[in-house]
Specification:
EC 2.6.1.-; Aspartate Aminotransferase, domain 2; 2 domains; pyridoxal phosphate; L-aspartate:2-oxoglutarate aminotransferase activity; aminotransferase; PyrdxlP-dep_Trfase; alpha/beta
């Protein structure tokens, strides 16, 4: 009998973390590797937020806090939901956690029983299915194609719902595609959900403020108020505020669900880092002007990457509405061979060969549940992106 839990055999390590680690190892060994795998902004955390954290340390705010968040931060989150999304919550309906992933994990652990199904549109963030499996549930993956710009259709959602469905996980703008659902597209999905009152909605709104051009962000309970009582609206400070390492996520929803999540957290991590909570408080209540500045930079980088990748024969690269990723298709490259003799049989062999022969690290599409694609994070310097895309162009041009 194995010493390790059988549950672990159902899950796998995060592929995005693995790519980032591999790129770091090769750099340390002297290779000129450009890593485009990490899903975090290259901007520094704004100074006002860092200053708030320093003040918290100086004032001795380094002790345990209430399990799921200090009162001031919970109130700031209520204010944020009202201001940005038109949603009314009380502090008793809010939970603060050690990152957005922790928020989702707590909710799944608090609600799933064996046999419960969770609908997950693909391409998906790599952790969704594995968190469902760890919590004892069954992920139901529904593929959204390039033809629908990686967005789930109402017909697909309707067909995936069974009497066992407990949650529908919804992410817009999306990791890994950057695809954002318009108000009308989201309304069509909520109309389906209204016909199935046993299905709850778990949103992942982490990229809410990273929305470009004419795209307007919306979240399900905002679009369909009747879903309010069965929606967990999840968000965090990691991406928009360049605070990935601070590890603060949060959510709001029905008080009984929040209480159940609090119970899970009380027996796992206890409270999120006290210093990070005061930093998050400053993020939500302080200056927001840098968001527009950052978005201008992200749009420029997005356009650069889409333009250069679209020049490659065999690659199709849609323009995303938000986040900081593109998700090109390599359908036209399957079956070709690299100068080193590697045959491109799928997106994983493509990504491996790209790293080994061109020193560019990307994440292969199978990790996100839809192939043949790869994900590029453009949250890095323009010149770095230009060089990386040039290497990808030369690598692809040499395929035969």
């Amino acid at each position: 009998m194995s010493f390790l839990s059988a549950t672990l055999s159902r899950v796998k390590p995060s592929p995005t973390m693995a790519v980032t680690q591999k790129a770091s190892e090769l750099k340390a060994a002297g290779r000129d590797v450009i890593g485009l795998g990490a899903g975090e902004p290259d901007f520094d955390t704004p100074q006002s937020i860092k200053d708030a954290a320093v003040r918290a340390i100086a004032e001795g705010k380094t002790k345990y806090t209430t399990v799921d968040g200090i009162p001031e931060l919970k109130q700031a989150i209520c204010d944020k939901f009202k201001r940005d999304n038109g949603l009314d919550y009380t502090p008793a309906q809010v939970t603060v956690n050690s990152g957005g992933k922790h928020t989702l994990y707590n909710a799944l652990m608090a609600t799933l029983n064996p046999g419960d199904e969770v609908i997950i549109p693909a391409p998906y963030w790599v952790s969704y299915p594995d968190m469902v499996l760890l919590a004892g549930g069954t992920p139901i993956v529904v593929e959204a194609s390039l033809e629908t710009r990686f967005k789930l259709t109402p017909e697909q959602l309707e067909a995936a719902i069974t009497e066992k469905t407990k949650w529908f996980i919804f992410n817009s703008p999306s990791n890994p595609t950057g695809a954002g659902y318009s108000h009308a597209e989201l309304k069509a999905l909520t109309e389906v959900l209204m016909r199935h009152p046993h299905v709850w909605v778990m949103t992942d709104d982490m990229y809410e403020h990273l929305a470009y051009d004419d795209f307007k962000f919306a979240t399900p309970a905002e679009v369909e108020p009747q879903l309010y009582e069965r929606t967990l609206t999840c968000n965090g400070v990691s991406k928009a505020y360049a605070m990935t390492g601070w590890r603060i996520g949060y959510a709001a929803g029905p008080a009984p669900l929040i209480a159940a999540m609090r119970k899970v957290q009380s027996q796992s991590t206890s409270n999120p880092c006290s210093i990070s909570q005061y930093a998050a408080l400053a993020a939500l209540t302080g200056p927001q002007d840098f968001l527009a500045t950052h978005n201008e930079i992200f749009v420029r980088r997005r356009n650069l990457v889409v333009s250069m990748l679209s020049e490659i024969d065999g690659i199709t690269c849609p323009v995303p509405e938000g986040a900081f990723y593109v998700y090109p298709s390599i359908a036209g490259l399957i079956g070709k061979t690299t100068p080193a003799g590697t045959r491109i049989t799928d997106d994983e062999t493509f990504a491996t060969a790209l790293l080994e022969e061109a020193n560019v690290a990307v994440v292969f599409g199978a990790a996100f549940g839809l192939s043949p694609n790869f994900r590029v994070s453009y949250a890095t310097a323009d010149e770095t992106l230009k060089e990386a895309c040039s290497r990808i162009q030369h690598f692809c041009a040499a395929l035969r």
